[in-house]
Structure formats: structure tokens, C-alpha cells
Amino acid sequence: MERSFYYPVSWSNVHEYRRLLDEKEIPYEILSSTDLPELEEGALAIVFPSLPNRTYVWVRTLFSGDGRPYPDPSSLRHIPLHR
After folding, report:
1. Measuring CA to CA, how many Å separate 54 from each of 36, 50, 51, 60, 65?
2. How many CB atoms are located within 10 Å of the residue 59 CB?
3. What is the pTM of this model?
4. What is d(CA 24, CA 53) in angstroms, rounded to the nearest whole number?
5. Which end of the chain is less crowded, N or C, counting CB atoms within 10 A of the terminal residue's CB?
6. CA 48 to CA 6: how far, in whole Å?
7. pLDDT for 4-17, tens place per residue?
8. Beta strands in 1-83 (DSSP E)
9. Contact between residue 79 and residue 37 where contact means Cβ atoms under 8 Å apart
10. Contacts of 17 (CB under 8 A, 6+ apart)
11. What is the pLDDT of residue 83?
12. For residue 7, with 0-12 CB atoms within 10 Å meaning exposed, 13-18 middle and 19 or more buried, which class applies?
């Protein structure tokens, strides 16, 4: 799946978001901080592809705002451990 934008969510809220998104048949995937290092420890990211405008408006309303742009995949390939 193409990754366009995401919303960080807590573990405790992810099940409700999944239920609502599944009911609307909106494509998404869930990533952890292992997959997306910019997330705070213990948070999850609900990641979306580019969506049609009407669908995006519904998602934006669900999450009370705009999503964060998904980082360029090349920036996630190698993160140095020491500088």
C-alpha cells in the first residue's frame, strides 16, 4: 500500500479507530514505533494511502484534524545509532 499520511494514536484507542475505519471500508495499516521511528514510544500510527476528497474529509473529522505526512521511505532505511 502506498503510504501518504498518518495519525499517531495510543494503543488504548486503536481498536475503536479500526472498527470505524473497517465499517467504512477505508484502507489503512497500523505501524509501531519500530516501523516508524518518529512515533513516541508506545504509540501506534494509523497510515493511509491518498484518499478521495470525501473519504479524506471523513477521516479528518474522525481524527479531529489533518494527518501528518508519511516520511519519504528513503529517510527510514538507515538511522545511525551514533553520531
Report:
1. 27, 12, 8, 10, 14
2. 21
3. 0.85
4. 14
5. C
6. 6
7. 999 999 999 999 99
8. 5-10, 29-32, 43-48, 68-69
9. yes
10. 9, 46, 62, 63
11. 40
12. buried
Pick the closest to residue 43 from 75, 76, 68 (CA basis): 68
Cell of 69: 505526512
Which helix (H) or strand (E) segment holds residue 70: the answer is none
Cβ neighbours of residue 1 closer than 8 Å, sequence gap 6 or more: 27, 29, 47, 49
CA atoms within 13 A on the CB side of 47: 18
The length of the chain in residues reads 83
Amino acid type, 54: R
